[in-house]
Every structure is written in structure tokens, then in C-alpha cells.
Specification:
375 residues, 85% helix, globular
Length: 375
């Protein structure tokens, strides 16, 4: 929701675009970093208290962001807000693994991850409207209001899904050992790398689009939400399409190849469109294709990564979430810092990530096929 406000923050506080971009990057870095501990903590003390605590921190930090008197205070509060936000997706994935058999869990994870992919795409459209009508502080007030509503709802309705007898003592050795077992398990590493590459290209757009569209192509601030909504609709339809194909019997390994193929096509066309200087149409149309492919790729890749480790639900959820978000944060910040509002730099990043995603997906599908043949 704060994305459209980044150029406004730069002007309001008299800072560079790179400093304003930290508003998003610090949130995502904290969001990713805290996930490393959240899943293991929920394995130790239960899912419900971790979820409730995270929502409380998110809400209070949102209020602090809305009244921030300086860019330094805002950035610090955004980092705290990111830490609070980390609990919800990690615990939700773990709760699915707690309560469902492996086959049903994979389908539910795909559905949940589709929604998680859609939400960050729709949010900037809402943020753009709030910015245009009220101002940038209203965006953080809205986030705090949403956090408070979710906190009350979770406190009233959320049941604990991890019995006491299945919890593990919280120790540093246990944390390290859990991550070690997860990454050492065959079949987890390639799907995580696929998720990271796919999300890196996606988040390069998320972070850089305000500057590329509004400064590079001269799109008015009030129209930015419309362009961003196009990619939101694309990832939504990609998620819906992928879910239907999974229910029709397509395997997740097949789905990642299909989605990655669409992504590499979109990445290639966005590079071509910017090189030929076609204009905003040559930029946004290929991004719609890329986002559609991402909606197919990411849920299946995450489901594949969690499939081999049902007994490490919290730790696995943390590893997947933190790795993906770190990749996205680095890609978003680096793209904005190096390229600024230049479409060519951005397009090169998206094209490269589409190529990497496709290469890894093809390799993962090949290795799974060889594994099945050997049996």
C-alpha cells in the first residue's frame, strides 16, 4: 500500500529516491529476517500466540508510522512493522501442515499462496487512492486499522493446531538443526530457488514501478493504480488457472515448468519492448504476461519445497518465506538504486530472473522425472 507514496515521501522529507525506497526494502528485510525465527518459535510455543503477537506488533507499528515526524522514524517503524507482519504467513502455512494430509495440504498451500501473491498486487491500488484523496499518512493508518481488525478476529476465532506433546524446546541448537535438516532433505532446495528467482523478478517490478511508470514514462500518480492493477489481475488469473490445472490432475512439477515458460516469455518481451522504446504499452503488456506466469509458478514451487518435510512445518515455512523475501528485497532495492526510473535496467533484471526461473524449473522437473523412473 505504501508503494505509490515513495516519490511523495522523497519530496516531503527532502531525501533521495533511494532513501525513500528503503521504506519498502527495510519492511521486507525485517519481514524476511524475522521469519527465520518465527516458524521455529511456533514449533516451540504453539501457533496461536505467535500469530496474535505478530498482529499486535504490526498494528502498533502502523500507528507509529502514521505519525512519524521524520524519515528516520518512519523507516525504523517500518522495520518493526515488517517484523510483526512476518508471523501471519509463516504460521498459516504451518497450521495447514498441522491439520491436513500431505496431498490436501499441497492443494491448500497452493490456494493460500495464490491469495498471498494477489494481496501485495492489489494493495498499491488502494494505497494510490488513499494518497490521492487524503495523503501518505492515511496509508499507514489504514494498515494499522487492518491489523487491529485481524488481531481481534484471530483472538476470537483462531484455534491452536499444534498440541503441547508435539512441540519442541526452543534452543539455538534446535533452530540451527531444524534448518539444517530442511535444507539437507532431498527435493527442497531447487523449489526454493525457483520461488526466489520468480519473486525477485516480480519484486523488482513492485519496488521499481512507481519510479519507472511515473518518472520514466510520465504516468500520472492518479493513474498509477490502474497500471498496477493490471499486473494484480494477471497474477490473480494465473493463480486461478494454476489451481484449476492442479485440481484437474496436473502435478506441481509440471505446473512450475508451465509457469516458468510464461515468465521467460514475458521477461524477454519486456526487454525487447524497452529496447525498442515502444512506450508504456511495450512495458506493461509483457509484465502482465510475467505476472500471469508467476501466479502459476510460485504456489506449486512452495508446495514442492514443503512436501518432503511434514514434521518440520514451522521451520520449513520460515525457510521458504525468509529466502523468498530476502531475494525479493535485494532485487527491488538493487534495481531501484542502479536503474532509478530507467526502464532498461529494470527490464534486464526481469528478463534475467525469468530465464533463471525457467532453467531451474526445467532442471527440477527433469530430476523428479528421473527419480520416478529409478523407482
Amino acid at each position: 500500500m505504501s508503494l505509490p507514496a515513495q516519490p511523495t515521501l522523497a519530496r516531503s522529507f527532502g531525501v533521495s529516491a533511494e532513501i525513500a525506497a528503503l521504506n519498502l526494502s527495510l519492511f521486507m528485510i525485517a519481514f524476511a529476517g524475522v521469519q527465520i525465527f518465527i516458524g521455529y518459535l511456533s514449533d516451540a510455543i504453539g501457533r496461536r500466540p505467535v500469530m496474535i503477537g505478530g498482529l499486535a506488533v504490526f498494528t502498533l507499528a502502523g500507528i507509529a508510522c502514521a505519525v512519524s515526524p521524520s524519515i528516520e522514524v518512519l523507516l525504523a517503524c517500518r522495520a518493526v512493522q515488517g517484523a510483526g507482519a512476518a508471523a501471519s504467513p509463516v504460521v498459516a502455512r504451518a497450521m495447514i501442515r498441522d491439520t491436513q494430509p500431505s496431498g490436501q495440504a499441497a492443494r491448500l498451500l497452493s490456494t493460500m499462496l495464490s491469495v498471498l501473491a494477489i494481496a501485495p498486487m492489489v494493495a498499491p491500488t488502494i494505497g494510490s487512492a488513499l494518497l490521492d484523496v487524503i495523503g501518505w499518512r492515511a496509508i499507514y493508518g489504514a494498515l494499522a486499522t487492518c491489523g487491529a481488525a485481524l488481531l481481534l478476529y484471530a483472538n476470537a476465532t483462531l484455534d491452536e493446531t499444534l498440541p503441547v506433546e508435539k512441540r519442541t524446546p526452543a534452543t539455538f541448537g534446535g533452530l540451527v538443526g531444524g534448518f539444517g535438516r530442511f535444507f539437507a532433505t532431498r527435493g527442497t532446495r531447487l523449489p526454493i530457488l525457483i520461488s526466489c528467482a520468480s519473486f525477485a523478478g516480480l519484486f523488482a517490478y513492485v519496488a521499481g514501478s512507481p519510479f519507472v511508470l511515473m518518472q520514466g514514462y510520465g504516468v500520472a500518480a492518479k493513474h498509477y493504480g490502474f497500471y498496477f492493477a493490471l499486473t494484480a489481475i494477471a497474477i490473480m488469473f494465473g493463480s486461478i488457472t494454476g489451481g484449476r490445472m492442479l485440481r484437474a490432475g496436473r502435478s506441481p512439477s509440471t505446473m512450475i515448468v508451465i509457469g516458468a515458460t510464461i515468465q521467460v516469455v514475458g521477461g524477454g518481451f519486456v526487454a525487447l519492448g524497452t529496447a525498442l522504446d515502444i512506450g508504456v504499452v511495450g512495458f506493461i503488456t509483457p509484465m502482465v504476461i510475467y505476472f500471469f506466469g508467476s501466479g502459476i509458478t510460485s504456489p506449486s514451487a512452495t508446495a514442492l519445497a514443503m512436501e518432503p518435510v511434514p514434521r518440520l512445518a514451522g521451520t520449513a515455512s520460515s525457510a521458504i518465506g525468509s529466502s523468498t523475501m530476502i531475494a525479493g528485497s535485494i532485487a527491488g532495492y538493487a534495481t531501484t538504486r542502479v536503474g532509478g526510473s530507467t526502464p532498461m535496467v529494470f527490464a534486464a533484471v526481469v528478463a534475467a530472473m525469468g530465464t533463471v526461473t525457467f532453467t531451474l524449473a526445467a532442471l527440477a522437473a527433469y530430476l523428479r522425472q528421473k527419480q520416478h523412473e529409478s523407482r
